[in-house]
Design goal:
homodimer; 279 residues; alpha+beta; Nucleoside Triphosphate Pyrophosphohydrolase; Arc Repressor Mutant, subunit A; 2 domains; 10-stranded mixed β-sheet; two-stranded antiparallel sheet; 5 helices; globular; DNA-binding
Chain lengths: 279, 279
Amino acid sequence: MAANEEMNYLEKYNIEDYDRPSVTSDIVVFSIFEDENENRRKMAEGKLSILLIRRNVHPYKDSWALPGGFLRKDETMEQCAIRELCEETGLDNARLIQIGTFSKPGRDMRGWIISNAYLAPIYGENVKVRGGDDAAEAAWFELQVEYDDNKHIYSINLSSRDRDDEVRLKAKAIVKKNSCGMDEYEVTDNDGIAFDHTEIILSAYATLRNHLESDGLAYELLPEQFTIMQLQKVHEVILDRPLLAANFRRKIISEIEETGIIEEGKAFRPAMLYRYKGL
Amino acid sequence: MAANEEMNYLEKYNIEDYDRPSVTSDIVVFSIFEDENENRRKMAEGKLSILLIRRNVHPYKDSWALPGGFLRKDETMEQCAIRELCEETGLDNARLIQIGTFSKPGRDMRGWIISNAYLAPIYGENVKVRGGDDAAEAAWFELQVEYDDNKHIYSINLSSRDRDDEVRLKAKAIVKKNSCGMDEYEVTDNDGIAFDHTEIILSAYATLRNHLESDGLAYELLPEQFTIMQLQKVHEVILDRPLLAANFRRKIISEIEETGIIEEGKAFRPAMLYRYKGL
DNA sequence: TCAAAAGTGTTTACTATACACCCATGC
DNA sequence: GCATGGGTGTATAGTAAACACTTTTGA
């Protein structure tokens, strides 16, 4: 009886009667690339970078944007993000962390479009990036974030890697608590970053820093086998401060294990390679 | 020129061409209610409770569900959640924490509907709850969550407060890591909880525990002025373990301040009332 | 007087931090 | 030899946990 009634109801129910938004995922793909090394005695420094695509369609044609795309009917939000990430990088086993929902009315001039944003830390050394259908090209940008503690202003600088013509993008944003106590970024200056992607990048950066130690994200940015110093450099680049090697070793030694393999070819004492125990 | 070209493009662009989901917010409203006190010498114990509504429309007619509703064109996702919370409780200044996106195909038999879920810890002592348009009634349910460490199974028990006929809801779920390393709940048993709301409640509970200390959520569950022991009871109920009063006091004393007012009327030494300094 | 919370003091263990020191390597 | 990272030891400071003890209240 009740089941019958329910079936009747569902048949009459037409979801088209209500206004609906388009839903997208945007992904902030992080990777760390080693600089060219001028001094053989020193370890290479790394730069935190994110993947951007240059749009070849309107709106924001020729601007740089985060990779992402529309949610399809047969997939979850995460699967959508994984699919987009895979289209862009070929990687299909990355870890994704949800950053939040971006839904401010007017954020996309094409209409009512909301975005669920994710971050994906990857080891990008061997990854070939390629643009999707609405992108002319994809490129890595070194990310530099500065924070003015007094004015609560974040400045971000992005500069392209591996391109003949260097591209530089800049933006500034003020952090505020919104009406329900969440951090929110209000962009005040923007040079070359499409949509509200500055806010998404800043949120992703904050989430990456917060989840770095508690969630083992640093290991995603390294190959499966790595030295402790490589792991330390990842932490240093993301936390943006130097760490003491002796203390760092003791702190993380319990969550990694020796591979037995010893690194060769460096102009200093060779190090053991470790792997993540996976908590 | 370029601006003109962009305008032309946007005019031709028809967002209706693409398939779109309906988007809702669901809110897990937490509150702690003191039990009746049989012993005047003891402080009342509290029970963690959540707010559910009984659906009076299909699907899941007569089942209990989380309050929530459809996203409107002129609001953000958070504003949608605030609006729904206000409709249900009259509160318009609660803190909301985003739990995540629930988007599994088929999660709602009415069609393609995805949900962004939030949690809202509130001080509910004086709040009158009422159902919205698709709800026959709203009621508080005491929430009890148990975890089997070996089998990775969560059991949740909900039992109604302040109702003539006691309602009991139950469910079990297995925790797994999904393909991108996030925790996911797979419901194995369910008695009376609508949609995938068991998963949402479990995610909310985990988020509440995780953010309790780092984010000052405990203060949302108390009136503006409170004793340290009241604050400790909130922590104890949520973390589900006893704490030592002497240590707890020292741990949180730096984030609260004295009001100067001293509690009266208890059958034991009166306590200072404090307020949250707000980090 | 008594039970229970309010509040202080103290001991012990653990963790974070800083730094001194030796080792191993390629140039 | 020497600069640099690899790795160990150790002293100090701060925090967390456990517990003993005194104070204050209403019944």
